[in-house]
Design a protein that fits this description.
single chain; mainly alpha; two-stranded antiparallel ribbon; 8 helices; 64% helix
């Protein structure tokens, strides 16, 4: 609920236009100890990684919605549309769940992390996470692919290599679909479920094989690179 937002990672939820939830970091208090800073940035890194995948899902939905609205000629402001998309996709609820899970993962409470975050508010890296969170959400609600805050793209992940990985995913995905269906009849709903599972499984398989290239960064590194 909204009453809990001040205690969750010190991320204030502000209204943009008609009420779109975005993240900003409080700009008060002094720096904390270097030890706390390191722990806090690990927390923010994990929070960013998890929220990235939420934004990916939001971007896919938003892209479809934007296309349908454009085709129908419906008149709606960007602010109102973003507000509706954020509500439909339950962005705030998912973020709050992620924040609670990450706090538990690091053996902390949301309140303790909030205090650490306030103390480090003037740190430039802290600000970059704040800007990065806002950019991820704004891009996703506009139907654009998000980019992970502070992501480091490996030099070996060239455009050519990215295209090669994409081709591999398509081949693996097609094989998985054929192996699953294998000539049997299925409804459109069942086919849709098969395609969705095959798509996710193919990406997981191919990117896992490329984990060394991605410096163990995971799929978020690849998808940020091609965004």
């Amino acid at each position: 609920e909204l009453r809990n937002r001040a205690a969750v990672l010190a991320l204030s939820v502000l209204a943009v236009g008609a009420g779109l939830a975005v993240l900003v970091v409080s700009n008060t208090a002094s720096r904390t100890s270097s030890c706390q800073d390191e722990q806090l940035f690990e927390v923010l890194k994990e929070l960013s990684r998890r929220f990235f995948f939420v934004c990916q899902d939001v971007a896919a939905i938003a892209k479809s919605v934007h296309a349908k609205i454009k085709a129908s000629g419906t008149q709606i402001s960007d602010e109102k549309l973003k507000e509706q998309l954020a509500r439909q996709c339950k962005v705030f609820e998912k973020l709050q769940q992620i924040q609670n899970e990450v706090a538990e993962q690091f053996g902390l409470t949301p309140v303790a992390i909030a205090e650490m975050q306030e103390q480090a508010a003037e740190d430039s890296e802290m600000e970059s996470y704040s800007v990065g969170f806002r950019a991820m959400l704004d891009d996703a609600l506009a139907g654009k692919s998000p980019i992970l805050p502070n992501v480091k793209i490996p030099k070996a992940l060239t455009e050519e290599k990215a295209l090669e990985i994409h081709r591999q995913v398509q081949e693996v995905e097609a094989k998985k679909v054929l192996d699953t269906v294998s000539g049997s009849k299925c409804s459109l709903k069942e086919l849709g479920e098969v395609l969705a599972v095959a798509h996710k499984s193919a990406w997981d398989q191919v990117l896992e094989a490329e984990s060394e290239l991605l410096h163990s960064g995971g799929p978020e590194v690849y998808h940020s690179a091609v965004a």
